[in-house]
Amino acid sequence: EYNVSAMKFLQTEDYETALDLLNRAKQLITADVKFGEQDDRRKLLAITYNNMSCIYKRRGLLKTALSLAKKALQLETESTKADNPACTHLNLCAILSRLDKHQFALQHCQCALELLERGDHHGNMTPGLLNDYQDEPESSILAVCYHNMAVEHEHLKHHDEAIQCYYRSVEVAQAELGPDHMVTAAFEKRAREAEANLIAKGKASARGKAKVSDYDKKLLNAAPSLRRVTGGQAGTGTGTPRQARPAR
């Protein structure tokens, strides 16, 4: 209850009240008078640390956010009842990316994807977990995972992998959320932007102003087939997407 209430205060940017509730949750879970099974307490404490981490991330206190997210992940590895460790890996990815540690961020995304592919998660988002989509409870964690992988590949100049992951995020979002969902629209927009950047590099190269790698050339040739995988241009549905929030 403390975690769920804290999420509501985070939505209104009342960080102090949210942190106060989460500290109460932590005190209750770690009190000398124990309740429930040890694995249940570990699960709840991991959710609490994750939520604290997301609040500090929002406030720009990234080192504190990173420390708390690592504590959450350690608890989840020790528990047989971890609710959604993939979310924790994605939280770590977001924090490390903002710290410009993109290789480590990508590794956490890859861990999240492995967990999701083997079905080691429950639903789309963990109840009470404060994440970057806290006001959009229908967000697809798998689509978010592919999108964040694309972002990290792009930072690392892995352009072909980035484009493939961007379009994979669109494909998953379309399947799980629908073509007119705000998250789908945001991911489609970013995929088109990434592709446009490659095309611009190709044109600049033709004018002798930039070099395009072999990977980029291969991907430029493959772009039409990648678009066909996701049904062509964005907005192929019949409705009008709502205004999308930034993905990260």
Rg, Cα atoms, Å: 20 Å
The beta-strand count equals 0
Output the helix-strand order. HHHHHHHHHH
Task: Summarize the main sheet.
Answer: none
DSSP strand (E) fraction? under 5%
Helical fraction equals: 55-70%
Low-confidence sequence ranges? 123-131, 133-137, 233-247
- Integer average pLDDT: 79
Distance between the ends:
27 Å
- Number of separate helices: 10
Structural class computed from helices and strand pairing: mainly alpha
Instruction: Choose one word for the global shape.
Output: elongated
Structural summary, described in words:
The structure is a single chain. The protein is mainly alpha-helical. The protein is built from 10 helices and no strands. Helix 8 (159-177) runs parallel beside helix 10.
Provide the fold topology:
Layout: H1 2-11, H2 15-30, H3 38-58, H4 62-78, H5 85-98, H6 102-117, H7 141-155, H8 159-177, H9 182-206, H10 214-229
Task: Name a few traits of the molecule.
248 residues, mainly alpha, disordered C terminus
